Amino acid sequence: MKYTIPKEELVHPGHLACQGCGGALAMRIMLKTLGKNTILTFPACCWSVIDGPFPYSAVKVPLFHTAFETAAVVASGIKAALNRVGDPKTNSVAWAGDGGTFDIGIQALSGSAERNDDMFYFVYDNEAYMNTGIQRSSATPKGAWTTTTPVNHPKATPKKDILAIMAAHKIPYIATASIAYPEDFTRKLEKAKEIKGFKFFHIFAPCPPGWRANPKDTITLAKLAVETKLFPLLEIEDGEKYTINLPKKDKGKPIEDYLKLQGRFKHLKENDIKEMQTFIDKKYNRLKILEEISQ
User: Fold this and answer.
1) Cα 206 to Cα 129: distance, rounded to the nearest angstrom
2) What is the pLDDT of residues 153-184, one digit of tens each?
3) What is the pTM of this model?
4) Who contacts 33 (Cβ-Cβ below 8 Å, separation ≥6)?
5) Cα 6 from Cα 29, distance rounded (Å)
6) Pairing mode of beta strands 241-246, 233-237
7) How confident is the model at residue 1 (pLDDT cuts 50, 70, 90)?
8) Hey, where are the domains in the chain?
9) 230 CB contacts (<8 Å, ≥6 apart)?
10) CA–CA separation, 159 and 205 (whole Å)
11) Which of 4, 119, 174, 193 has its CA 20 to 30 A from that of 106?
């Protein structure tokens, strides 16, 4: 099999991530592909801790730590400065968690997308505010346990559809990615490097402590999320053209296969799981319709 992922490592082994951190692996894959000509912007998130204490850094590229709500606008300013000094080739990257994307940072994200700033925005989605103690975010799935949605009062609303929100901005490129499918992630990054304008990546990044899962199951969980069609791999171009990359099979694995590996869902009853399966099937069928009519 041809090796498709660049071999050079731009993340040091001595970072501060938890064992089995999906967000740490996502960063490795991203930097391997975008390369040294990259400047990172971190808002408050797990990666602002994973990177290590000043003056040390776990990444081998320049980075800027910024306020929770400003990842997109700071990365936008960095790109403008690069253009000003005659460097259009360096990638300006905003790298944020779901809290800093779906919630606190959405206003700056929307502004940069509406302006079609020439930059990358990555959300590594672990489905809660993990860095501050596992509080629910609008990316937390319905029914999930967090410290602010305890077992007796689990999250009562569905996960925010961030892809639909970003597609409404008509930006050139949107993609989902999973750490269990690094070749797919790398291919999309290579494609996005050739596109001028705003590029948005939604990365599925399991969090063993927050999900009450075994660290050894991180890749299994990331793969099952795709195989159950909970998190399809897809691309959206110009807000209009939908392409489903994986899965292509009509019937996916049952959502129980994914849920049973996580303590945050152990309180769910049979009817709760059936409701979740129905929700996933409806959402995936809608994606297939969008793909069909947009080709």
Assistant:
1) 13
2) 999 999 999 999 999 999 999 999 999 999 99
3) 0.96
4) 5, 6, 185, 186, 189, 190, 193
5) 9
6) antiparallel
7) very low
8) 22-294
9) 224, 255, 258, 280
10) 15
11) 193
Rounded mean pLDDT of 243-259?
Answer: 89
Place of tokens 């408050």: 44
The letter for the amino acid at 20 is G
What is the DSSP track for the chain?
----S-----B-S---PPTT-HHHHHHHHHHHHH-SSEEEEE-SSHHHHHT-STT--SBSS-EEE--TT-HHHHHHHHHHHHHHTT--SSEEEEEEESIIIIITTHHHHHHHHHHT-SEEEEEEE-SSBTTTTSB--TTSPTT--BTTB-TTS---SPPP-HHHHHHTTT-SEEEEEETT-HHHHHHHHHHHHT--SEEEEEEE---HHHHT--GGGHHHHHHHHHHTTSS-EEEEETTTEEEEEE--SSS---THHHHTT-GGGTT--HHHHHHHHHHHHHHHHHHHHHHHHH-
Give the pLDDT band (50/70/90) at residue 14: confident
Tokens 């319905």 sit on residue: 142
Q: What is the mean pLDDT of residues 119-139?
A: 98
Joined tokens for residue 76: 């936008």
What is the rounded CA–CA span in Å between residue 120 and residue 106? 15
Q: Cα(140)–Cα(155) distance, rounded to whole angstroms?
A: 7
Distances (CA, A) of 64 to 28, 39, 123, 191, 210: 18, 8, 16, 25, 26
Whole-angstrom distance between the N-terminal and C-terminal Cα of the chain? Answer: 30
Q: pLDDT at position 2, please?
A: 60
C-alpha–C-alpha distance, residues 114 and 198, integer Å = 9
pLDDT for residue 247 is more than 90: no
Q: 46, 17 in Cβ contact below 8 A? A: yes
Q: Under a CB-based contact definition with an 8 Å cutoff, are residues 186 and 32 in contact?
A: yes
CATH number for the segment(s) 22-294: 3.40.50.970
Give me 88's structure tokens.
Answer: 């259009």
